[in-house]
Model the fold of this input.
Amino acid sequence: MSGAEIEINDAIKNHNLFMEFAPSNSGLIIDSEDGLVQISAESVSYVRSMEPTTPLVGRAFVTNSMANQLMISIFYKKTPSLYPLKVFRDYLKAQQWLLELRNK
Done:
């Protein structure tokens, strides 16, 4: 255990649930972040290794915290995703952006 809030077992469960609910359609993910979340390095590696086979079109983060916005931006610049990612303050704008991605 690394002391992170999201360990490898959590990442695997999350991925398996996503794959169960979005097996044939491109999926959309909106993460709502009210506090800082620690993700273990092993979990990050796992998620990145699964991206090529995950039916995902984009990921939106919704947070009102400037600190969270900066942390998310820095994290994804250091560990880029295969999918478009954007940070929003408004849930409806995040949803609209994801739907536009899916409809392209």
Notes: The two ends are 41 Å apart (CA to CA). Residues 8-102 form one domain. Residues 8-21 form the longest helix (14 residues).
